[in-house]
Structure formats: C-alpha cells, structure tokens
Specification:
mainly beta, 4-stranded antiparallel beta sheet, about 0% helix
C-alpha cells in the first residue's frame, strides 16, 4: 500500500482512458495520477500533474473516445485540459485548451450524449445564503 499522500491515494476516478470501451480506474493524490487499465496485467501508469489546490477531472474533451485530464485551479479560475496522455516516460504534454472560469468553485464532468464531455464549475454557496 502507498503511504498516506503517496501515489494511489485519493478517491477513485472512473473513466475510459485508453478508448477501448472499458472503464479504467485512476487515483490522484494532488500531484501524481495513477491509472490502472482494465484487463491489463501491466503496472499502473503514473503521470505527474497539477499544483496544490488543483481539482482534477477525467473526461473525453475532444470526442475521440478516450478520457484525459483537465485541471481546475479554484484560486484563479483557470481550467487546463489536455487531449492526450504522455506516450513515454519523460514526455511533456501541453494543455490543448486553457480557459477562464469562475474562481472558488468545484469542477465536475458532464457527460454528453454525443460522447463529448464538458467541465462545469459550480459555485459554492456561502453558509447562510439560502443554498442547499
């Protein structure tokens, strides 16, 4: 088992990262994303990404059938999405899209009926403002 705060910590994220139609399991500890491909005996893939405070979501942003990461930075509202994972150890992947969203929110994925996903940033309701 990974030590607390180590790779493999964090809630499971379920998405088809290799586009084979089967859900894969990923875990992100705020710095390292560990992806275990369904039906594979290979060790999990590791990707270093994000900064402290970032929120990671997985979705199919370019409609190719494979889910990739998007990072939302609540501190300034930046959303960074990539269209592919690094293919080899040491490869860098640049964000395919950088967008501005509202700061201080919570990111979630909305699955599209056409196979294209989007990131929605929901604003948090301050205590005592009548929110749910």
């Amino acid at each position: 088992a990974a030590p607390p705060g180590g790779p493999g910590d964090g809630p499971p994220l379920i998405a088809d990262v290799d586009g084979d139609g089967c859900p894969d399991v990923a875990r992100w500890n705020g710095r390292v994303l560990l992806v275990r491909l369904a039906g594979s005996a290979a060790p999990p893939r590791r990707y270093r990404l994000g900064r402290p405070g970032d929120q990671l979501v997985l979705g199919d942003w370019n409609c190719d059938g494979a889910a990739t990461p998007a990072l939302y930075r609540p501190a300034d509202g930046t959303l960074l999405a990539v269209d592919e994972f690094a293919r080899r150890v040491g490869d860098r992947v640049e964000a395919a899209r950088v967008e501005r969203r509202a700061a201080g929110g919570r990111a979630r994925v909305v699955r599209g009926a056409n196979g294209c996903d989007t990131v929605v940033v929901e604003q948090r309701q301050p205590a005592g403002t009548g929110g749910p």
